[in-house]
Amino acid sequence: MTFNPPTPFSEQTVLITGASRGIGAAIARRFAAVGMQIVIHYRESHEAANEIARACMKQGAKVLTVSADIQSHEQILKMRDKLEQMNMMPDIVVNNAGISHYGLLSDVTEEDWDRVMDVNLKGSFLCTQAFMAPMIKMKYGRIINVSSIWGISGASCEVLYSTAKGGLNAFTKALAKELAPSGVTVNAVAPGAVQTDMMAGFQSDEIEAITSEIPAGRLASPDEVASLVYFLALPESGYITGQIISPNGGWLT
Predict the structure, then answer these.
(1) Out of the domains of life, which is the source (predicted)?
(2) Which of 195, 201, 212, 232 lies most in the core, judged by the most C-beta atoms within 10 Å?
């Protein structure tokens, strides 16, 4: 049995968390290219979010920017209420918001742990829970989690980040089984090294060392990750669910 979308793909609404920059911004632009309704979520980067919104509107998309602390259940529910009032409840949710943490586990504080887990893992849980009910009712929807290669293989000095993304991968697999009978797919995109602000903390020699380990010989662009997210959102991708797909240039096979 196949589940056809109740709304044509180009008329659907996509919510992208953390969409004011980097991969999230690239995802917003990719969906805007087909004229979809775009909800750009951000926490504090108001001007950056508006800049991405303007770029999307130039492509013919209807765009709404919303601010919310992804760690707060109350703020997520307020965001949901706003989208419902604007008739922009998402058919597609992209849980992209995330933060990294670099350092030895022995130096990690409890506050560090809570913040990384809350943004990367709890935030995805809260957003998914808030928006999944209409998808289940429609018998159609897409939930796409932006994870990381480190959630698959782990990384030295990135134990917190690796743990949070590993949890997101397990969340993806388990929820996919729960929602599959309702025609809702749940997948994760787990990129390798991408040219974003998260790499800004690395020195040039460190970037060169990382690049030398990647068979493709370069870092990924945010647009390449966005293309995979877009593919997983298509109606034709309805038989793909519970998958952790890692675009990493052959770094991890």
Answers:
(1) Bacteria
(2) 232
